[in-house]
């Protein structure tokens, strides 16, 4: 059975390294995984005052889409030693209203991306903290801190290093096994 994996890209820039890596991951995924980017840039900022009987349509559509997923993959850059605001907003929108979080119990994984050498370490760990609170069963190993990303991709966004391809492929195979061992709760 093919598992549906929502890919949440922390950078909104169309040509970002982060989005390019998300596309590479989708191409390298084993046949048991179907990776699809779930856009987050259209979500209005979370405001509890708007989350009554008639929440914004973008929130409702996003929550329904995430609820239907089997697993979650977060691919993020680091902004100011943390995750970008649009990604945090998406996490907040999906976690509300209280006790109706669409993230609850789903298996997930994190990939951080940076042109620098540290590979988005701060964002990676801040995101893991948020996911722990949201009860996302996050894959612990292998951890992916993809530093020096500008040297790993060509002008079209394709990987240029076989060692990186092998590393990401191993990660995805491990993630697929993680999803099998930690299935999302039954959808209602």
Outline:
The protein is an alpha/beta fold.
List the helices and strands and how they pair.
Blueprint: E1 3-9, H1 17-28, E2 33-37, H2 57-67, E3 71-76, H3 85-95, E4 107-113, H4 121-133, E5 137-138, E6 144-146, H5 162-181
Parallel strand pairs: 1-2, 1-3, 3-4, 4-5, 4-6
Descriptive report:
The chain is α/β, with parallel strands linked by helices and 188 residues long. The protein has helices at 17-28, 57-67, 85-95, 121-133, 162-181, and strands at 3-9, 33-37, 71-76, 107-113, 137-138, 144-146. Strands 1, 2, 3, 4, 5 and 6 form a six-stranded parallel β-sheet that branches. Helix 1 links the parallel strand 1 and strand 2 (33-37). The protein is globular. The relative contact order is 0.18.
